Description:
Pfam families: VTT_dom
Order of helices and strands: HHHHHHHHHHH
Shape: globular
Transmembrane segments: 20-40, 52-78, 105-123, 135-159, 171-189
Domain VTT: 53-155
Number of strands: 0
InterPro entries: DedA_domain (IPR051311), VTT_dom (IPR032816)
Oligomer: single chain
GO cellular component, one term: plasma membrane
Amino acid sequence: MIQRLYDWTIHLAEHRHAMWVLAIVAFIESSVFPIPPDVIMIPMILARPSRAFVIAGVALLASVLGGLLGYAIGALAFETLGEPILTALGKGDAMAEFAERFNNMGFWAILTAGVTPFPYKVITIMSGWTAMPMGVFIATSILARGLRFFLVAGLLWKFGAPVRDFIERRLPLMFTLAVALLIGGFYAIKFL
Length: 192
């Protein structure tokens, strides 16, 4: 099923209304959809490198707005919508424990989910459920999603198709390692 969704999403990147499709996918990916907007964004940028940063901007804006929908699901409809979504994603059992620790590390949780393969929708819903301050949520979402989308756009704009394999296969790992090193560095400074 995931492969069919991926193939469908790639096909949409070639459509004449691809920018709208990207916006819709980025929006719903932030709250319920399992396929990241990168799968539309990458072919769009490869087809029109001169529009790389406009495309990244559309993905950023739509993703942050979709994140606000996820936040609203968590804040207003957690039991009816949020909990089933998180349970379907395999995150249901750890909800209570996660909520307790979540707001203590909210900035880092959003930053990590925004730039790594961790499902951003989980963090958006949990942010609303745990009543994370809206300003922190929005600012960190803009930072995290901006880093992700504009780095991908910049790499594709500069290096083109040869970097596509790296982005699709290795960039999530690189983001994960960078965040782990950053968090480890802060812990080392704090405790040493």
